[in-house]
Amino acid sequence: MWQATRIELFKIFRKPRTYIAFGAIAAIVLLIQMALYSDGETYLRFALQALQDSFVIEGTILNGYFVCFIVLQTLLVHVPLLIALVAGDVVAGEAAMGTLRLLLTKPHHRSVLLLSKYAASAVYTLLLLGFMAVLALVVSMAVFGTGDLFIMKSTEVVILDKSDVLWRYFAALGFAALSMLTVAALAFFLSVFADNSIGPIISTMSIVILFTILTTMDIPFFNVLKPYLFTNHMLNWKGFFEQPVDYREIAKSAGVLLLHIVALVGGAVFVFNKKDIVS
Amino acid sequence: MRKFLFGTIVLMGCMMAQAQNEQALVQAVRAKLEKVNNYTAKGRMTVDVPFINAPQSGVVVYFKKPNRFKVVKDGGISILPKGGVSINMATLLSGNDYTVVPAGKVNFKGKVMRAVKLLPLAENSDVVLTTLYIDEALQVIRRAAVTTRESGSYEMELDYAKYVPYGLPDRVVFLFNTKDYKLPKGVTFEYEKSGPKKPAPDPNKKGRIQIDYTSYSINKGVDDKVF
């Protein structure tokens, strides 16, 4: 299995499209950091207008932790689209090139081959997330310094002590990894059905965009659907930035995402084992 | 007619004597506070405001005559209501540009206090009215209710222990009315996560900030750069 996964990783990292996601993330994170570095105070003055009418705020809000939170809040909704680029291609891409049939002539069980493909997609996903974490957290901390984390929500302001922040980022990134692996599993599942990679990539993007819109729209009819949308649970990395942390809710969401991964990867293996490979 | 005039004069005399008593009491409180030219105090601040979720934190409080006051959280963020500069009594009683009006005696936290109202003489003063409950025996202010033009009304309750000779409290509780707080989600980049929604903060609930002082360093000098 490890050998097969290494081969799959080699294939993934040989393709130029793999690096599009790294480039896009680097560009977005650096742009946000540059914008906040040059004119973050103006953004803060605008955002804090309502609060500063009644309160005097002392201290540096614009620090590395704050910048990282803004980056994650902006990016984690869109990273799934970049993951679909690779995870949607792992099976369908081979089918399109006609190498899938050749691959199956090797003395590997189909399940092992497919699981190694998912494992390789998962490694790519985790590397992408790790890359984003380093850029968003480490670089922001180095450039902006550290301090208390000031989180602006629409109805509340949360201040977290600087000694109580870093573990939250690690926990949130762990949860985000689970969320991204769910998207990878979805793209991977759809990839099994297609003979070219465009279909699963676009389908995954469409599902994520549709579910995200349903998640964010505050309409009673959609509220009924929300508990069943994985995109709704994906946002629960933010739960680690609440005081107190609602571990029960986070565990529930983690369970839902894990269930999705098992069902989607299991479903992919099941379908693939039954499938007549003609390409 | 003579009786009426006599009665009026006696009444006015009593009132003036009473006002002089209160004036003397306020002056005594002020004299105590004036012993302090500056201080640096360490303490813990607890914020209980409906829409602010902040942990209890260690703070350093700086004061320098006549009215410079600052609460600093080392390397962190502190948030205080506007008008919070008046969190210390020395600022409220500084200068002589107010009239002292006696307001009788009141029971506060199981003790009888003298109630005094301070009316500013200056027309453009931000403070419109201050009501003080003064502990006559200790010659300290135990409660102050301040109405301002710009920053609304707020109340302060003060408890004393070790630093009573300087009129400095060991605990200050600051109560104030809060406005409604709401930001568009576009500004906060907010996507709502799953789980039960928190109930909206009660806009009628008063904000409360408490500072528990652990130590004062009095009259040892405070650098102007701090402010």
Describe the overall structure:
The complex is a heterodimer of chains A (about 280) and B (about 230). Chain A has about 280 residues and is mainly alpha-helical. Chain A contains 13 helices and three strands, in the order αααβαααααββααααα. Chain A has helices spanning about 1-15, 15-45, 50, 65-75, 80-85, 90-95, 100-105, 110-145, 165-195, 200-215, 220-225, 230-235, 245-275, and strands at about 55-60, 150, 155-160. In chain A, strands 2-3 form a two-stranded antiparallel ribbon. In chain A, helix 1 crosses helix 8 (about 110-145) and helix 2 packs antiparallel against helix 5 (about 80-85). Chain A is elongated and about 70 Å long. Chain B is an alpha+beta fold and about 230 residues long. Chain B has three helices and twelve strands; from the N terminus they run αβββββαββββββαβ. Chain B has helices at about 1-35, 90-95, 185-190; strands at about 40-50, 50-55, 55-65, 70, 80, 100-110, 110-120, 125-135, 140-150, 155-160, 170-175, 205-220. In chain B, strands 4-3-1-12-11-10-9-8-7-6 form a ten-stranded antiparallel β-sheet. Chain B is globular and about 80 Å long. The N and C termini of chain B lie far apart (about 60 Å). At the A-B interface, strand 1, helix 4, strand 3, helix 10 and helix 13 of A face strand 2, strand 4, strand 5 and helix 3 of B. Strand 3 (about 155-160) of chain A pairs parallel with strand 2 of chain B, so a sheet runs across the interface.
Give keywords.
A: 279 residues, 72% helix, elongated, B: 227 residues, ten-stranded antiparallel β-sheet, 3 helices
User: Percent of residues of chain B in beta strands?
Assistant: 35-45%
Low-confidence stretches of chain A: none
How much is the radius of gyration of chain A in Å?
Answer: 21 Å
The pLDDT mean of chain B sits at 81
